[in-house]
Amino acid sequence: MRRQLEHLLAVGELPNAEIQVMPMDREEHAGADGGIEVLKFEDGTAVGRSPAIANGRPVTEPRQLRIHELRYGIIRAQALTPRESTASIEQLLGET
Length: 96
Known about the structure:
Layout: H1 2-12, E1 37-40, E2 46-49, H2 62-78, H3 82-95
Antiparallel strand pairs: 1-2
Helix pairs in contact: 1-3
């Protein structure tokens, strides 16, 4: 677990990555029933997938993609900020 936490901290320092932690005490949050994946391509197309939407099947319709993006935004709002997340990971690292 220690190496995983160290890896998260290293990834969080990359210019194209941001780490946010969802605290375990949040009983209900927008990502509780599974993750969200949205891939956007250079040609402007996109595909999304989530176990909670369309039974986990990939979706490309703009309305379904918008639902994925909105849920992702809610999850980010409910999670710790990147700075708070780094502090939380560092605290866990100090405890292991």
